[in-house]
Amino acid sequence: MDKYNVLTVDDQVHCTDMxxxxxxxxxxxxxxxxxxxxxxxxxxIQTSAIDLVFLDIDMPxxxxxxxxxxxxxxxxxxxxxxxxxxxxxxxHGYELYPIDFLLKPVSPLRLEKALVQFRNQRSNRTVSxxxxxxxxxxxxxKKITVRDKSSIHFITINEINFVEKRGRKCIISVKxxxxxxxxxxxxxxxxxxSKHHFFRPHxxxxxxxxxxxxxxxxxYMRSYLIELExxxxxxxxxxxxxxxLRNAINSHL
Length: 253
Prior knowledge:
Blueprint: E1 4-9, H1 13-23, E2 29-35, H2 38-45, E3 52-55, H3 64-74, E4 79-84, H4 90-93, E5 100-103, H5 108-141, E6 143-147, E7 152-156, E8 162-166, E9 169-173, E10 179-182, H6 186-193, E11 198-202, E12 205-208, E13 212-217, E14 223-228, E15 234-238, H7 239-252
Parallel strand pairs: 1-2, 1-3, 3-4, 4-5
Antiparallel strand pairs: 6-7, 8-9, 8-12, 9-10, 11-12, 13-14, 14-15
Coiled coil: 221-248
Domain HTH LytTR-type: 144-251
GO molecular function: DNA binding; phosphorelay response regulator activity
């Protein structure tokens, strides 16, 4: 059985103690480390092998969201679970792809569910890392065939930025932001591309999960905007679709 090192970061010591008592019941957790100051926690992470971090959000010195962002940038293999007493932080917190968002006081059943997700993601990442080279090589040469009125196009999947439905046509944005117009429907293209890790965040778009650079709330906090790598386009995703997108990205990692 794989064993994991866990870190909790919370300026409320009694909350840390309660969480640690729950975590000690799980035999796959080998070590539990705790810090009340997020600055000390970050210094510890930089010299230690940590698999999972439980993060409070409303903390002095460094906001928990900012700390999570730093961890994701410097240590992308570390997984996160937010633990807070403020449910209104959830919208911002989910931008950082945490495993879960637990409200205080932590329910043992919700914690168990979050830890199941953690172990599943760790297992998926291990398998993905082993297969990553082969998958990358395959994607580099794999093509789809699309049609327009007078010709057939052979498009390398790895070069697709996104697919957009415009009126009755579909536009495929590819390398160097070149656009290819085709008469295939978006549903047809979704069937072709879904097995290659494309996702439909909106009724008019398909995007490759590998090119998602950032997801952020819109200015009205009613939905999210997706930014893609090296693409001058913002694609909207609803709150309902956001959870599905987040799970798809986590599975793809």
